[in-house]
Amino acid sequence: TMTVFMGGDVYMAEFNPMVYLQHFRVEEEVMIILNHSLTQSGAVKGCTLIDICSGPTIYQLLSACEFFKEITASEYTDQNCQEMLKWLKNEAGAFDWTPVVQHVCQLEGDRYRTWAEKEGKIQRAIKCILKCDVHKSNALDSVVLPPADCLVTSLCFEAACKDQSSYRAAPRDISSLQKPGGTWRKVEIWAPVSTWLVHKSSPVCAAGFTIEKVEVLSRADVAMHDINDFSGMYFIVALSRPRGSPSWHK
Ligand SMILES: C[S@@+](CC[C@H](N)C(=O)[O-])C[C@H]1O[C@@H](n2cnc3c(N)ncnc32)[C@H](O)[C@@H]1O
Q: How many whole angstroms separate alpha carbon 105 and alpha carbon 114?
């Protein structure tokens, strides 16, 4: 493929949060519905959740904040951390998530009197934004958190990994951030190389998870296909095996 790998330093120098957020508008509808549907699967609940590689976005956490009291966001670049922080603090110039929050409120059956209540809920649930590098053995650097009930990765590894071997290694490292028996909710771009992602020999299974649920979204548009040639997305819920249990699969 024509894919050119962008290392973390390139993201740091060139990733523009506002451009990414504006582009997100194109995909948001289905992304939100599928994120919501995964979260409703029942397997995904607990007290603490860590979102790895959050970028400047919160859409991936909107349904989750109904099931987890404490959310830790994390991101590699300073500009994305700052962009999210701006929104969490309601600062001027922050991205307007209102239409997305309203949409999720509707999907959840309009439990809130106003969308602003839901916005307040997620802003309170996100306790902090940590620096993160998925290639480090502790992805959250020197911060050691108690193992979480749930990990979320959304469009993470295919952005951060330069080849299949680092793509295979990264999930194993982040699995240590999680309690045995916890859940991993994952959205992954389906490039031609990653059709093995949901196979028994996939990095998800190799990292000690059992895949519970998969939704596949084929790409309909061909916008910017020359620079971004993915063909679809996987939405996955996986459960980690309790420690000490066998590592083979049915
Ligand atoms: C495609 S964005 C995904 C953002 C968000 N999770 C979403 O669903 O829209 C990929 C993110 O990965 C971050 N990233 C790049 N290299 C990374 C690394 N080594 N460790 C953690 N995050 C990294 C980038 O800064 C960028 O914010």
A: 9
Q: Residue 196 corresponds to which amino acid? A: W
Ligand 1 centre and the CA of 230: distance in Å? Answer: 16
- Look at residue 2 in the predicted model and tell me its pLDDT: 40
* Domain boundary assignment for the chain: 8-240
Q: Which of 9, 23, 76 to mutate to test the pocket of ligand 1 (most atoms within 8 A of CB)?
A: 76
- What predicted TM-score, i.e. pTM, was given to this entire model? 0.90
Tell me the residue type at 136: K
Pairing of strands 232-240, 178-190: antiparallel
- Residue 31 Cβ contacting ligand 1 at under 6 Å: no
pLDDT of residue 215: 81
- Domain range 8-240, CATH class: alpha beta
Which residues are within 8 A (CB) of 178 and not within 5 positions of it... i.e. 6 or more apart?
50, 147, 148, 149, 150, 151, 184, 240
Q: Of 179, 176, 183, 175, whose CA–CA distance to 150 is shortest?
A: 183
| Alpha helices, DSSP H, located in 69-134 | 78-88, 98-107, 115-125
